Amino acid sequence: MSLKTQHTRALAALVTVGAVGAALTGCSTATGGGSGDGNTLTVGTNGGTGMTAVIEKFEADHPGVTVKIQDSPESYQQVTATQLTGGTAPDVIQVFPGTGNNVSVKIAGEKGFFTDLSDESWVSELPDASVDLLSAPDGAVVAVPMTFSSIGAIYNTAALAEVGLTAPTTWSEVLQFCSDATAKGKVAYGLGLSDTWTTQLIPYALTATLVYADDPDFVDQQVDGSASFSDSNWKLALQKYQEMDQAGCFNPSPNGTAYAQVQEAIAAGTTLGTVSVAAETQGIESVSGTDLDLEFDPFPATDDAAETYLSATVGPSFAVNAKAKDQDLAKQFVAYLAEPATQVVYATAYGDTAALPGDEKQEGPVAGVVGQFVSRNTISTWPDQLWPSTTVQPALFDGVQALFTGQQTVDDVLQKMDAAFVDGAK
Amino acid sequence: MTEVLNNPATAEAAERRPSRPRPAKPGPSHGPRTPTWFVVPAIVVYALIVLWPNIQGLFYSFTDWDGLGTSWSFVGIDNFFDVLGDPNTLRAIGNTFLITIVVTVFQNLIGLLLALGLNTSVKSRYVLRLVFFLPVVLTPIVAGFLWKYLLSPTGTVNEFLGSVGLGWAQQDWLGNPDLVVYSICAAIVWQGAGYSMVIFLAGLQGVPDDVLEAAAIDGAGSFRRTVSIVLPLINGAIVINVLLTLISTLKQFDTVFAMTKGGPSGASETMATIVYKTAFTYLQYPTALAQGVVLTIIVGVIAFGQFRLTQRRGELS
Q1: Is A405 within 8 Å of B175 when comparing Cβ atoms?
Q2: One domain, residues A50 and A189
Q3: Could you tell me the residue range of the domain that residue A266 belongs to?
Q4: Which of A33, A404, B120, B298 has the fewest CB atoms inside 10 Å of its own CB, making it the most exposed?
Q5: Where is this region: Disordered (chain B) (predicted)?
């Protein structure tokens, strides 16, 4: 082989490597933040339903500006955490309140990934219950909330009327409701524990009243060791869960049932309702394919309806990427998201209650109910948003499934949750 | 040996003996040589998207990296101690082996029976081969969701059992921790048996008809011909099938995740699903990486052991 040929081959190889490298580099930067150049704003969403409904007006109010949604509903946390680490995250990022995952306000906020928004005008409008959940550990508010997400009972109104039943407002009425529904050949509450996220819904709904209503600082007490799941009304909540099962409240074999089947059964009217997140009113309606009339109510845990607290917390929230090139444009967009009209449009499309509705009125089966509880401040935050470790929630998931298979007792489940909590708090 | 070499007749015979073909020398007389740098782009891409992430994964399994940011510190083999001391991981390893054994046995047995049945002159054999192969073209995740609905408490399987008077056999197939692993095995076997069947059919095509005819003339029945002639002659296909089934089942993820996500309460957790959960649900990335390394070692050791075993027997040749 001649020297010239060797050089030609070496050069060709070098060009090839360079071309591949350039292509890969191009891939990695083309999707990321920093694309905000005064004309384009990138927004990362975990399901873009609400955001899609509001960007058109922003673009109309800001001629020449384009808002690009980067939606990753199946793997949002993984994608966004990787982008944050690599410096390629969108300019505006959907974040999760409190702790809980790597794209949550406190965990990612502690590492300085978000811009401090404390001086923005809308911050003074934030409900008291939301401020801490939207603040980084240093106290800086870093995100604007779009909805209050709540957990309650969703009923098919027509199915209720068909069997002559009404939504229960006390615990005794819940058990009677189950008995009456069974007598009418209906399932009272659909339960699809095969999809593990649904395992937590009834415990959260019950502990909102039984634990966190009287003891909003319960998690802090757990952290300092003066309280535990095992020695609290969490035990009563899980016992009530079992009591519902024994009373025939649920469909047969909840562990083998998928949540989608519960949605279909409610839409068909063979199941009267379920305990779920309020946004599922949209999900069930979309499964039915028709204008299904659904009712959303708080889920009672005691025999005094006035004692019932709603399990509600800050829903989707948006932060500004600290590495966004056009900080002003990103802040303008977030301020736009905080406007009452934007909030109502977003929340209605999302199927939940606007977090900052101002004087705007929101229609739908959820907003009125949740609004009452928020205004009375009779809401309890979803506890997992305050838990110090991501392993506590899976311990609850596994535990509830094991309760239904008889593999674990209530005490077993709570001990495992305590162990996960203590381990995570270290 | 010296005697042999000194014997002119033997030496002449050795000269006449056909020698092992030698590799052709590169040069103008053997056509243009393919430039080796053609392979560089593939190597670069492979290195960037396969080798480098794997090396990084191995590296981070010895750290306490939190998956966010670039700070980390070495923790030695603590993550591996955590993995091997975790009862959930050990249960996942046990389930993985159980699923692997059950699927390997039944998928190959059913595949072999299908192949033997369809390697005949039955008129509809081509249609039947297609029908039995159809599940293979489904992606495992789709097959998993399909079976999730078929095996649900109110699903088709229980409805069918009820409609034919077998109501007593209705089960909570995916909700019963004692049954769930076998339900998953059934779904995997349903999807994979057609694949095994095709490999067995290819092996059966190589069995000489005259040998089978001679055995038949000698009075051997069909069972005897199958056991004494067919099976030894398709040993290569059996080995390949077993090897492929072992490896694919050891790293099984899609079907399990679609059907149960490892539940109820971890009863159907496998190594692959627990790696996913540890990383993306518990956010314990270094532990998940350590689990991944353990899974890789297990799959590697089994595959290598099987390969060496078959190589020694000369079966693959």
Answers
A1: yes
A2: no
A3: 150-313+381-425
A4: B120
A5: 1-31
CATH code of the domain covering residue A198: 3.40.190.10
Calculated CA dihedral for residues B154, A301, A310, A257, nearest 10 degrees? -10
Number of compact structural domains in chain B: 1
Beta bridge partners of A40: A66
Q: Which of B46, B68, B149 to mutate to test the interface with A (most CBs of A within 10 A)?
A: B68
Tally of structural domains, chain A:
2
- Domain annotation covers residue A26: no
Tell me, yes or no, whether A319 and A403 share the same domain: no
Residue type, B105: V
For residue B231, the domain's CATH number is 1.10.3720.10
- Is B256 within the bounds of a domain? yes
CA distances for A376 relative to A128, A308, B300, angstroms: 12, 12, 61
Q: What is the DSSP letter of A309?
A: P
Find which of A104, A194, A264, A271 to mutate to test the B interface (most B CBs within 10 Å of its CB).
Answer: A194
Task: Examine the domain organization and report whether A209 and A344 are in the same domain.
Answer: no
- Taking an 8 Å cut-off on Cβ atoms, the answer to whether B265 and A408 are in contact is yes
Cβ burial of B148 (10 Å; 0-12, 13-18, 19+) is buried
State the residue range of the domain holding B200.
78-313
**Residue A24 falls within a domain, yes or no?**
no
- Whether residue A136 is found in the same domain as residue A170: no
Per DSSP, helices labelled H in A116-186 are 128-131, 157-163, 171-183
Q: Mind listing the pLDDT tens digit of every residue in chain A (426 residues)? A: 444 455 445 444 444 444 433 333 333 333 444 445 668 999 999 987 789 989 999 999 999 899 999 998 877 888 898 898 888 999 999 999 988 788 899 989 988 999 999 999 999 999 887 898 999 999 999 999 999 889 999 999 999 999 999 999 999 999 999 999 999 999 999 999 998 889 999 999 999 999 999 998 999 999 999 999 999 999 999 999 999 999 999 999 999 999 999 999 999 999 999 999 998 988 898 888 777 899 999 999 999 999 999 999 898 999 999 999 999 999 999 999 999 999 999 998 888 889 998 888 888 778 888 888 888 889 998 998 888 888 898 899 999 999 999 999 999 999 999 999 998 877
Residues of chain A by 3-state class (helix, strand, coil), percent to 5: 50, 15, 35
ipTM of the complex, rounded to two decimals? 0.77
Strand A310-314 to A379-380 pairing: parallel
